[in-house]
């Protein structure tokens, strides 16, 4: 078994919508060769449209996502033999011979079983020890594989805002490699920046935008993955064992529409596509959208001719909020003037 890029549990993932989005782009955005995924998240949309474009810009401000992008989309060579040899060692670890470290002490018997946490600790420490003998792509592939493997075994409902409180967490961690993509014929640039900061630095024929809409912060939802990626062993707080806040998105705050307008003004593109859903009517305060459909449409129409397409879709819901008659929408803006 090998993990594909879409084998993740991720709030707001567009994996099931990729065929529809790809079809829309193919029809509505002719004669385009470059694509920018500026809030890439899982990057499944970029993955889904690889055959439509020649060059790509992939961006997200999470450290864990940057590692995953480098592992899957990177164009640096790597030794398949080397990573499989190391992966085999990780696959057959005996937790009884391993020492406790950060993951075991902080997350053991909470987000992971005690034995699984010891394995995660060992692998993460071992990767740091191997850094000098691995090139950047090999390191990223092995670390991304750890992130996918531990996410599969985590004692959660799909994010890390809380762990499931139950006795006797089952040992289920299995280290498996991701399947890196072979994209030698594509020009890929990967960034870890605030989207608004990046907007004025890049240009693309098509820019796809899927920002966070609710008050839920992705850096807080996936803090365990962020902490294990950075391996800075921070002080943790509260019942959910989160570090001090960082990478807080302005799109999850009350002035989100102001930041969205700033982003749109700065973008250099022929077409702008914005994903949106109708959860702004949700009864859950944390699920309510910070930007309404009407707000977004007004901003986009200042940039160019804008249409809205929609499709019925059952949203990924890791909590108890019910979304009836849920629709995913796609704004398509044909920019009036493409500024070089």
Textual characterization of the structure:
With 340 residues, the protein is α/β, with parallel strands linked by helices. It has two domains: 12-62 and 185-215 and 253-340, 3-Layer(aba) Sandwich (Rossmann fold), CATH 3.40.50.150; 75-180 and 222-245, no CATH class. It is 35% helix and 14% strand. It has helices spanning 18-28, 44-48, 63-73, 80-91, 102-107, 114-129, 136-153, 195-199, 218-221, 223-230, 256-266, 293-303, and strands at 34-37, 55-59, 187-191, 203-209, 268-277, 304-312, 327-335. A seven-stranded mixed β-sheet has the order 3-2-1-4-5-7-6, sandwiched between helices. Strand 1, helix 2 (44-48) and strand 2 form a beta-alpha-beta unit. Helix 3 packs across helix 7, helix 6 (114-129) runs antiparallel to helix 7 (136-153) and helix 11 (256-266) runs parallel beside helix 12. It is globular and about 65 Å long. The chain starts with 17 loop residues before the first helix and ends in a 5-residue tail after the last strand.
Task: Describe the protein's topology.
Elements: H1 18-28, E1 34-37, H2 44-48, E2 55-59, H3 63-73, H4 80-91, H5 102-107, H6 114-129, H7 136-153, E3 187-191, H8 195-199, E4 203-209, H9 218-221, H10 223-230, H11 256-266, E5 268-277, H12 293-303, E6 304-312, E7 327-335
Helix pairs in contact: 3-7, 6-7, 11-12
* Helix percentage range: 25-40%
Based on the structure given, which CATH architecture of the largest domain is correct? 3-Layer(aba) Sandwich
Cα shape: globular
- What fold name goes in the CATH topology slot of the largest domain? Rossmann fold
Output the structural class: alpha/beta
**Main pleated sheet:** 7 strands, mixed
In what order do the strands lie side by side in the largest sheet? 3-2-1-4-5-7-6
Radius of gyration: 20 Å
Q: Which oligomeric state applies? A: single chain
Tally of DSSP helical segments: 12
Give the count of structural domains. Answer: 2
**Topology as H/E string?**
HEHEHHHHHEHEHHHEHEE
Termini distance? Answer: 45 Å
- In percent terms, what proportion of residues is strand? 5-15%
Poorly predicted regions: none
Average of the residue pLDDT scores? 91
Provide the CATH top-level class of the largest domain: Alpha Beta
The CATH superfamily of the largest domain is known as Vaccinia Virus protein VP39
Number of strands: 7
């Amino acid at each position: 078994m090998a993990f594909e890029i879409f084998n993740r549990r991720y709030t707001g993932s567009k994996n099931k919508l990729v065929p529809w989005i790809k079809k829309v782009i193919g029809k509505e955005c002719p004669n385009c060769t470059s694509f920018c995924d500026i809030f890439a998240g899982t990057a499944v949309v970029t993955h889904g449209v690889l055959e439509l474009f020649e060059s790509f810009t992939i961006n997200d401000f999470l450290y864990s996502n940057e590692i995953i992008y480098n592992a899957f989309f990177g164009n640096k060579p790597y030794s398949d033999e080397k990573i499989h040899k190391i992966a085999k060692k990780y696959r057959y670890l005996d937790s009884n011979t391993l020492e406790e470290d950060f993951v075991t002490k902080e997350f053991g018997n909470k987000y992971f079983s005690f034995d699984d946490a010891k394995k995660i600790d060992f692998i993460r420490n071992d990767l740091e020890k191997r850094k000098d003998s691995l090139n950047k792509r090999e390191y990223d592939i092995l670390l991304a594989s750890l992130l996918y493997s531990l996410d599969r075994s985590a004692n959660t409902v799909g994010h890390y805002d809380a762990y499931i409180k139950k006795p006797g967490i089952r040992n289920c961690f299995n280290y498996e490699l991701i399947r890196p993509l072979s994209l030698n014929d594509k020009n890929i640039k990967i960034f870890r920046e605030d989207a608004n900061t990046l907007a004025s630095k890049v240009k693309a024929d098509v820019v796809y935008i899927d920002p966070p809409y609710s008050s839920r912060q992705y850096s807080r939802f996936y803090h365990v993955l962020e902490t294990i990626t950075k391996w800075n062993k921070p002080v943790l707080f509260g019942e959910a064992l989160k570090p001090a806040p960082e990478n807080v998105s302005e799109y999850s705050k009350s002035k989100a529409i102001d930041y969205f307008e700033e982003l749109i003004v700065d973008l250099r593109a022929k077409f702008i596509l914005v994903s949106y859903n109708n959860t702004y009517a949700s009864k859950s305060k944390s699920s309510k959208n910070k930007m309404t459909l009407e707000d977004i449409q007004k901003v986009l129409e200042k940039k160019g001719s804008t249409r809205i397409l929609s499709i019925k879709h059952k949203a990924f819901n890791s909590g108890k909020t019910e979304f009836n008659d849920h629709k995913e929408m796609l704004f398509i803006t044909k920019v009036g003037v493409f500024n070089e």
